[in-house]
Protein 1
Amino acid sequence: MADLFDKLKKFSQAKEAMELGIYPYFRALSDSEGTTATFEGKEVVMIGSNNYLGLTTDPRVRKAAADALERYGTSVTGSRFLNGTLELHLELDRRLAAFVGKEAALIFPTGYQTNLGTISALVHKGDYVIIDKDAHACIVDGCMLSRGELKRFRHSDISSLDQTLSRLPEEAGKLIVVDGVYSMGGDIAPLPEIIDIARKYGARVMVDDAHGIGVTGDGRGTAHHFGLTDEVDLIMGTFSKSFASIGGFIAGDADVVHYIQHHARSLIFSAALPAPNVMAALTALEIMETEPEHNRRLWENANYMRESLTAMGYDTGSSNTPIVPVIIRDDYRTALAWQALINEGVYTNPVVSPGVPPNQAMLRTSYMATHQREHLNRALDGFRIVGERLDLIDASRATRAEGSLA
Ligand code: PMP
């Protein structure tokens, strides 16, 4: 008789990495001040977070969350559908809608649940949902939870999108879902071309802008960056990155949001965001609206690091945002490089297959508005030492980069 747990015996990769002392996951930080952290007793420069604007340590954000904790307590103990809606939730809904330029917005307990609930609420049997091959896992999960049919096109490849749509029945409902900024590659979706194709086939468009809001388009996101806010049907964001909190939201026309609100099971059957998290996000939003200097500093830091890592001879792929992958390709060498960088006091995120396609393993680095040059130069020193020691640097790439910078 087969035992359900038989598969456990075949799963050995994580234990093998642990035995080799290079297992990088579920390892705890004991302290974080944003730009630096304490990892297993060692102070490290943090270039492995999504805290783009550095607002997790902003005293105003912290105080707003602490005050909300005092006033409203630790939990709303219910779904937004029933006892879990505070006036604060409604205020944040309204403020987010205005910020991204849509009629209405609706906040969910997490970004993951936002995609799960939105896609499965809108895509029904007989409909199609068409997504980029590199779309985030929770977009894929939202599609799987829907009763519609999932189609994928090659990453940011417009002719592949066109071809995919051309094969679908004209009368079927269609939703194209893309990331605004890709969470691993750090590249921006070609929204103008995607919108043209969507128009050609009568498809709706949803942009997951988890890594775009606060970052692209002066902080208002990727649709705003391209001047296409009205053409994009749905804009999704999360609070677990620039907003220094946790939670997610969907924004669009009032009727669409009204429909999602009454059909998204991940919203209806899950407890709402606690007040301290709502207040942290609201305060972060206010800072984004009134203090553009954080966004400016973020880009200065990101550009400095992308240019410096490329000039050093690292492969940073097609990044053009504050997410800068350092592509090493081999899974084992990536784990070794991660550990070596930790030893040099630099915290990055190793991403190996299946997080990225085979032979695309990388150290995902990402930057904050609050990084000082001294932090960034410490990280670059670490990359120089580790790159030379592990032979990760391509001298010809460094020469080419120097040529192109000159
Ligand atoms: N979409 C994208 C593109 C993401 O990168 C993430 C989180 N990494 C999510 C959605 C999910 O967001 P959350 O952490 O709020 O669940």
Protein 2
Amino acid sequence: MSSHPHLVLSGMQPTNTLHLGNYLGALKNWVKIQDEMPCLYCVVDMHALTQDSAYGHPKEVAQSTREVTAAYIASGVDPTRSTLFNQSQVHQHAELAWIFNCVARLGWLDRMTQFKEKTGKHKERASVGLYTYPVLMAADILVYRATHVPVGEDQRQHLELTRDISQKFNNDFDAPDFFPLPEPVITGHATRVMSLRDGTKKMSKTDESDYSRINLVDDADTIAQKIRKAKTDPNPLPDGEKGLEGRPEAENLLNIFAALAETPRDAVIARFAGQTFSVFKNELVDLAVEKLTPIAAEMTRLLADPAEIDRILKRGAEAASELAAPVLKDVKQLIGLIG
Ligand code: AMP
Ligand code: TRP
């Protein structure tokens, strides 16, 4: 049994704008878990530097950090209950990441599928930062000895690496249970939201087509247009789970509906059984507009006062530093670094 008190940590990169996948796969669960355990949520601005859209674009990094902070709060992350901060203001993340670079093995990182997907055939042109990105993620989590990490399905492998690093550190320094083995919290009907243009591809910030995703800042007309144009197939909606086989677009839209409505998927399938996509899409438009447009409005309100956002981040960073400092001190002592 782990002796570590329950503690949540998660984060998102401030690159481009957040979309429905970020919201349903992660943010919605962050809000819920606030009622169950203490939570730390960071905007991982140092991770963002591994992306071409951020590196070399200082204004965008700063602006996007504030936007993502506003999106967290507008979605229901409460900065008076949860610790909300940007990663780079808590220097212990980077320090522990270096130590973890010496714990993690090349073979482990070589297996990371997200790195392979992001670099394709051009591995030699990728930054070293992109390669060790999951090591920094492990440091984000373990510098607080966090036990629960709510994320989308695509982060499962990175969390396994975090657990491997934790275990190896504990073994190598003869400190059983020093770091916990953090649990991924991957729940809900939409742990992997797919592109609206292609039900076999993940909805992503970097897809060239804006019609592939619904952004949290999209207005009602844009949401409606994107859903009406979403790819489907010629058949009516199925009357059971079985009828979804080989119909990724239908499955994705039904999952989105279930997640937004917070209803079991089979109830959604039963409700629309045999209906045309156009009937279903009308209902989905209404639901998405009802759930998402208040978030966009609240983001706009919050972003009108960037100084207040910066104050929230600073306050959060101070609280986070206080938790991280004693852990890093113990790490240094365990490994023989004086000071
Ligand atoms: P990122 O946009 O890569 O910084 O991801 C931030 C969070 O959103 C992570 O927890 C991801 O797992 C989650 N996420 C990103 N894209 C999706 C998606 N298409 N479906 C579900 N969750 C997602
Ligand atoms: N790698 C995560 C993503 O792309 C972002 C992230 C960085 C993260 N550090 C983290 C998520 C720590 C959870 C916990 O989505």
